[in-house]
């Protein structure tokens, strides 16, 4: 049975990706930050096809400890970096604490994980790495400088990683969604979801399942690409 690791799987996009991968025949190991009850419910739902580990992505020491458990014997065929943290706040004043946390979670941790697992994939001459980013990397908005910049950096890293691994038959992709109906969107919208949706050309937002379907198309080889960023949305980038 092929194996997959999903970083960040207890809500929204990550949970939809876990479901899609298991339905496609993968065994999935996923990580979660703090929602142990949700993680256990997901694990029980899928039985032997699903395992999980608590992982605090804001600690690179914790990331390294997790990666020490992943070696050539249990290397995954698929890695999906789905976890992220919004950090909307004006870029004024003392931003160091927010900068360190958001950059670690949204950039340094997924890069560290992709580098470790990518090396194992090159040794096996096969593998797919998907990094979930955001159109915030391309659409500046007051308050999202740190988050958007971290996602933009992750897209740039993913493109270079593709060049380094292509000859080993390991492919990479960034999936960059616009607004997605997830708990993060509800928190971000702060009760103004209806107003935000009105500003989208199609007057609708993506579902987590739609993002997961795109990931599965790439993993299955139906999207023939590597090192690229695939933008999903309903016209959010139309100015």
TrEMBL record:
Signal peptide: none annotated. This is Dehydrogenases with different specificities (Related to short-chain alcohol dehydrogenases). InterPro entries: NAD(P)-bd_dom_sf, Sc_DH/Rdtase_CS, SDR, SDR_fam. Belongs to the short-chain dehydrogenases/reductases (SDR) family. One of its GO terms (biological process) is monocarboxylic acid metabolic process. It comes from the Bacteria. Pfam families: adh_short. It comes from Solimicrobium silvestre.
């Amino acid at each position: 049975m092929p194996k997959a690791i999903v970083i960040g799987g207890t809500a929204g996009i990550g949970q939809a990706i876990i479901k899609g991968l298991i339905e496609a025949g993968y065994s999935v190991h996923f990580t979660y930050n703090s929602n142990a009850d949700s993680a256990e419910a997901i694990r029980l739902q899928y039985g032997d096809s699903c395992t999980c580990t608590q992982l605090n992505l804001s600690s690179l020491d914790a990331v390294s400890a997790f990666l020490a458990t992943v070696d050539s014997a249990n290397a995954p065929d698929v890695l999906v970096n789905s976890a992220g943290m919004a950090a909307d706040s004006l870029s004024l004043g003392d931003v160091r604490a927010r900068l360190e946390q958001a950059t670690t979670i949204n950039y340094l941790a997924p890069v560290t994980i992709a580098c470790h697992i990518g090396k194992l994939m090159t040794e096996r001459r096969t593998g797919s790495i998907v990094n979930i980013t955001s159109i915030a990397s391309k659409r500046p908005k007051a308050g999202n400088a740190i988050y958007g910049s971290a996602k933009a950096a992750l897209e740039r890293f993913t493109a270079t990683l593709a060049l380094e691994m292509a000859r080993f038959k390991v492919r990479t992709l960034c999936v960059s969604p616009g607004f997605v109906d997830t708990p993060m969107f509800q928190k971000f919208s702060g009760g103004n979801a209806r107003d935000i949706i009105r500003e989208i050309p199609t007057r609708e937002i993506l579902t987590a399942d739609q993002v997961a379907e795109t990931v599965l198309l790439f993993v299955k080889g139906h999207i023939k690409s590597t090192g690229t960023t695939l933008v999903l949305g309903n016209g959010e980038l139309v100015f």
